[in-house]
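Chain X:
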Amino acid sequence: MKDDFNVDELKKKLKKDRKETPTKATPKSDEEKVPALTTEKEVLDLIKKESSEKNNDSLDETLIEDYRDEEKDALNIEYETDESENKKESNFKDKLKSIKRPKFKLPNINYLKLFLIILLLSVISVLSIYLISSWSAVKEIEVNGNVNLEKEEILERSGIKEGNKMYLLQTNKAEENIKVLPIVEKINIEREWPNKVIIDVEEYKIVGFVESHRNYYPVLENKRVLRGFHMAPENAPIIHFFEGKEFDGLVDSLNDVNPEILRTISEIYYRPHDESNTRIQVLMNNGQEIIADYTTFGEKINYFEGMSNAIGDKNGIIDLEVSNAFIPYSTEEARRVKRDMSRIPKHAPYLEEIDENLESIKKALDNID
């Protein structure tokens, strides 16, 4: 690169000099006479040759000096080596390290609040979809604890139906509507999300039945008679001739009777006599007959199974009133007991009075219409 630069400059100077001092014969153009020079030695040889061909024509010394000065300058050019390049690269890296890079500061964000906001929005979205969709509709109603009440009657009283919105159910009002039924002791209605309703019913235990005009009405453990609630007398005895405090006392005793034993009792009659106003006559499903005191009957009758096995097939009266003994029908005492019990009326007076009162009320209502 150094030689090409200097040679070109010399060519230009030689052309200029020839134009200023033309020769005698110029058969060819200047370009054809200027050979291609590539090295310093060739250029110097050419200059000497031309100077000798000229008749004592001298070469301009300044031209040679300029050429040599340029050559000197060209020789003084420093070319970069691999070492210098590595050094520069190292210096550049040091400068980069020394430059203080601007710190990028993140905005001051409370990520906990952001998370809570996102969570709240998600919950609101899910709830909104749930409330307006069929997912919130009642799909199952479960009724537990009902023994004498039909499931359909409980559901009708509650007003709860499949397809109702879970969040619109008025459980308190439904409980009040069911609690109106006198046989219901406790009622509890719970939502089981997402689509189920559970109705837990606790009924009063039926301890007996009373008969009026060939209809049977249950007697509850709370001493209430369900008038108008007709039922077949099952799993409890039919009660005859009891009223007032005698009725209440008998119900208290029946509450103490084991349910398994209570199912084996067929009928109970109130049989007072001169010596006691608390005597009762009890007829069992297996045909055995018992006399007892209604105030202590509940605790004594629970041992009936053992007594029945001890008696076997013998016919007579089991006395639980005083002596806890067996009285065969063939004895005079058994015949006396039977005579005393036959004097009692066939129907309980208080039931007859109730029927008469109901009839009078019905007639009064008909007259109003």
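Chain Y:
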Amino acid sequence: MNKFIHSFRMRIIYLFIKSLLIAAFITFSIYKLLQLYYRKNVYYGDTYMYYRQLMRQIGDVYVFMVIYIPLAIIIFYLLTRTYTKYFKEISEGIRHLADGDFSYKTQISSNDEFQYIAKDINEASTRLKQAIESQALSQSSKETLIANLAHDLRTPLTSVIGYLNLLQNQLNLTPAQIEEYTKIAYNKSQYLEELIETLFDISKLDLSLTLNTTEQTTINIQQLLLQLINEMYPLIDERDAKIEESIEPNLFTMGNGKELARVFENLLSNALRYGDLTEPIQIIAKKTSKTIEIRLSNHGRPISEDDLPHLFDMFYTVDQSRSLQKKQTGLGLYIAKTIVEKHHGSIHVWNGEQRIHFEVTLPLDLRNI
């Protein structure tokens, strides 16, 4: 709740309302001062009385709205100037990241999403520097990673800066236009944050091809999946989706809980975004003699047989069978595959029974059976 209160959207709404209230106070004060002046100093027949009668004919409300609206826009512009500096600082950080300068640190002093974006950029720089120094990334994949994501990062950032410039420089905007442009800028900044988080995840995962033994713990897959469904309930409810789950108890494996949660969060998010939600999403988890099999299935248009072998490749997207409001990065399933393989498991996908099936196989920890 505290994070929501201090979010960028709430901050902009707060500044928008604050600008309206300040403008209203100033306009009302001008009105009362003029009213007091006319009562004490203007008499019938004076020149100023003519202007007063003209104002009455036009209407006091309309006259003072001419003062109120531009004043509100100017005040909103002054109150949001700080965010323009934030976007410029983020842009500078991304430019250094794209140029391979990992020593530059993005400095933003705020308690909203911008602080997290700056932290993610700095973390991404640190992780990429470590990956390059340890030669965990090959030269070709490193260049492809930076080039593709740097391009994707700049696109939403350009849109955000453009709309903020409109808010700052166009003094004839109506309150409705201000609210619309603010909403668009917020949505673009959310996508920007997602891309930065993806960059951070991909760089972190490529640091090593094997699990770090210090991060391995016993993981109960049943609890992990049920907790994930619980945490994603707002998104499930928003999409009016239904989950049918059949998860056996005592599904223990060894590994990194946060990384495995990322795998199943990615698969469930894909099902919620791309699937036909008129039918339930099925989550089935069971154990065999030596493995745990977790299958997530959703209704939807079958994936082309040409696309299936490449679905887990870096930067690969299935454009012809997906209709998205946001641009795809083609990294989500690659990250999922990397995590699963680091846990000595496998992941594959197939079409069947009017459903798309993703199945993750992990080694069973026999010590906890």
